[in-house]
Amino acid sequence: MAEAGTGFLEQLKSCIVWSWTYLWTVWFFIVLFLVYILRVPLKINDNLSTVSMFLNTLTPKFYVALTGTSSLISGLILIFEWWYFRKYGTSFIEQVSVSHLRPLLGGVDNNSSNNSNSSNGDSDSNRQSVSECKVWRNPLNLFRGAEYNRYTWVTGREPLTYYDMNLSAQDHQTFFTCDSDHLRPADAIMQKAWRERNPQARISAAHEALEINEIRSRVEVPLIASSTIWEIKLLPKCATAYILLAEEEATTIAEAEKLFKQALKAGDGCYRRSQQLQHHGSQYEAQHRRDTNVLVYIKRRLAMCARRLGRTREAVKMMRDLMKEFPLLSMFNIHENLLEALLELQAYADVQAVLAKYDDISLPKSATICYTAALLKARAVSDKFSPEAASRRGLSTAEMNAVEAIHRAVEFNPHVPKYLLEMKSLILPPEHILKRGDSEAIAYAFFHLAHWKRVEGALNLLHCTWEGTFRMIPYPLEKGHLFYPYPVCTETADRELLPSFHEVSVYPKKELPFFILFTAGLCSFTAMLALLTHQFPELMGVFAKAMIDIFCSAEFRDWNCKSIFMRVEDELEIPPAPQSQHFQN
């Protein structure tokens, strides 16, 4: 019975919603008919006459107050709408209307089983949009202590947002911890340290974890799984503690490198021990996976330290060895670090070889891959490229390939050219980026702007051709050209990743919502009425009374504009204009 009653109520609700959606004109005329039938019992004519008499007795001061209050309220609404649009990229009134009023006036029920079967295409596109809006670890992220904190000390600004640092804390807990950390006291301390929000508390915990390892104690470690043979050994050094100190406490890159070398010594020993025991159970396998992540992270950061300190060839060798030793760990995107170092060495043939391996249709793209490919093709023609000559004779095959590569890169991330052409100021890149977003553009341009400047004419070719991309994709949110449509979630995610003092680049540019324009017009109109009523109270009062008489009188059909102006002249006792002799004759 309850199910039958619920089904009846759902059917009744759907019928009412359908009627409001498609039969709203019928409802409107029914309401008008009822008002006409009930005009005598409701005394509508008498009430209108009473209202008209009351409004005719109002003084001009009332109209000044009315228009002034209306202007103030609409101005406040305009300010709030503009602030909400600048912060969230949408209109508050429009959002409330869509989310609350639309379901009542015929909106689609998301839980309907009928719609779920007919929206497979939409779900696929939404799934693609969600995957493109995934936040990735920045492969070229800076060091907190040696670079980010120094920026804060100099400028007083925080280059990292809380959301960005929270994502880093989650990454550290994923890569550097496992379920068996409670068996080793130092790892148990570090497991809590990665969850700490206070930087000083994290650093203190790392020092505490290192102090524990200085004490020789009895550690029961099984030599063979499920065995009763035990040994007494010195606790191994905690590699993750050295990582935290190198990232956050070291104030220079040289100090960070020393700490990472100590972390490498400790991490390599843990990795070799866990490698021998990884097949003895799921617990040992988790430990080996954690130790592998720690070792790869340490070697990658050591290579980045060498790159920062000018030992670029050594950094390239370390990155190549790391990619050969762990070819399946693509989550760190070490090839992007390698591309940047090879560009610094101007080893363009090696860069092309790396691109040939990673610029594949089955692999996820990045701004580094797309723009580096465009740079290599632009390098072949940029030194002799001239816009005037190209307009006269047309583009050659090599120039056409370079332009197409630039268009491809700009379609993938349209924010990068403004940073490369120095049309927007750069800031320190965040620790996480959103592919195809402003955060990725900042991270790429921060390290690769010097490589574009080094190639003669490359920036000139980019300046002349990058805007042509937008003519190929006039509706980027609906349909792409070489990639999927541009995701709509990039602006919101970038505002969370980038600091508040940076003006986030938005693509495509959003037009002002209707309600902002409406409130702006309403505010201006009411402010003008308030000013006119204050300056000319008698004239505006006459106009107001005339308009009220038009709308409230039962005989308003007989009124016209001429009667309004005649009444204005009578009220103000304006003498008629004298006619000239020419018109009298």
UniProtKB/TrEMBL annotation:
Pfam families: ST7 (PF04184). CDD domains: ST7. The chain crosses the membrane at residues 20-42, 62-85. InterPro entries: ST7 (IPR007311). It is a multi-pass membrane protein. One of its GO terms (cellular component) is membrane. Keywords: Glycoprotein, Membrane, Phosphoprotein, Transmembrane, Transmembrane helix. It is found in: Membrane. Belongs to the ST7 family. PANTHER family: SUPPRESSION OF TUMORIGENICITY 7, SUPPRESSOR OF TUMORIGENICITY 7 PROTEIN. This is Suppressor of tumorigenicity 7 protein. It comes from Camelus ferus. The lineage of its organism: Eukaryota, Metazoa, Chordata, Craniata, Vertebrata. The gene is ST7.
